[in-house]
Amino acid sequence: MFLGDIAKELIVASTVAFKEKTKVIAASQAQILSNFCGQKCPVINGQLVTGSDMDALLSYVEVIAATKWKVGSKYFFRHEIATRRGDR
Amino acid sequence: MSFGTIPYKRAWYLDVVSSGSVDMRPLICVLEMLRNGNFEEVRSLVPLLTHSSLDVRLYAQQLFADVCSNDDACAFNLALEASKTLDETRRIVLRMGQTLSLSVIPILLTWREALNDPEIDEYVCDALSAILPIDGVDQFSVSDLIFGRLTKRRSLAWMRPVIITEGKNCFSVTLLRNL
Predict the structure, then answer these.
(1) Is the ipTM above a cut-off of 0.95?
(2) A1 vs B161: CB contact, 8 Å cut-off?
(3) CA B28 to chain centre
(4) Are A42 and A53 in contact (CB under 8 A)?
(5) A-chain residues within 8 Å CB-CB of B163?
């Protein structure tokens, strides 16, 4: 899992929802982004997306992209979580 | 905002900090440590997974799912054993998916079989989809396909608490996308 992929999935889902005026279908992406970076994602699953929401999402993702994230790692508020208990 | 009033939705951590009850205070303290990157107290959440207060249980389960290691994730089995209602069991199953840990897969499949409830199958499928997003797998085929294919490919090795790729430990979900 990589945060960049998750962000892309959410942007695609949000763009589709915005164009089609439907609710975003992205069950876990927003939650993962929020947990990993420690800032609440401006778009969540089931939300109707407006133009300003899209702007907010793109700005949010730009901020996330400025940080280096490891593929396959899990983060909480930008802190990497050890895969094993003994690694803490 | 209480966790008890929003059974399937997540509450954003920082919204809960300002509205915590007395029962919630220890959890808020742990949250503060976790937010600062101190993960020493993750195991202290385990007893709270089965706390008598529903709000505490829900909060602890959400927090634990987000911060647990592969080793720790198996503690969700205790929460499932202590679950008082089917509704709570379903919620715990979803939380297990949010751990992103392969080590909960055998637990999910064991409980799926034990409960033998079509609705639980959907929740198990959702949880597995969060961990292993494989196209074309639904609640009907989840056991046969996922478990069968994983087992066939010596999945027990994959399900060890530590997943290693390219010489490094990881929580990889993408590793299994190509199965």
Answers:
(1) no
(2) no
(3) 20
(4) yes
(5) 72, 83
Tokens of B99: 């751990």
Residue ranges per structural domain of chain B: 100-179
In a 3-state reduction of DSSP, which class is residue B4? helix
Asked if B163's CB is within 8 angstroms of A31's CB, the reply is: no
The pLDDT tens digits for B104-123 are 988 998 888 888 888 888 88
**Secondary structure (3-state) at A61:** helix
Rg (CA), chain A: 14
**Total Cβ atoms within 10 A of residue B173:** 20
Q: Tens of pLDDT along B66-91?
A: 999 988 999 999 999 999 888 899 99
Least confident of A55-59, B21-25, B56-60, B127-131: B21-25
Residue in A73, A76, A78 closest to B170 by CB: A73
Domain boundaries, chain A: 3-81
* Distance (Å, whole) CA B5 – CA B55: 9
Enter the pTM of the model. 0.79
Of B101, B163, B115, B171, residue with least CA distance to B143? B115
* DSSP H or E segment with residue A60: helix A51-65
Measured CB to CB, residues of chain A less than 8 Å from chain B are: 1-2, 5, 27-28, 31-32, 34-35, 38, 40, 71-74, 76-79, 81-88
In sequence order, what E strands does chain A have? 74-76, 79-81
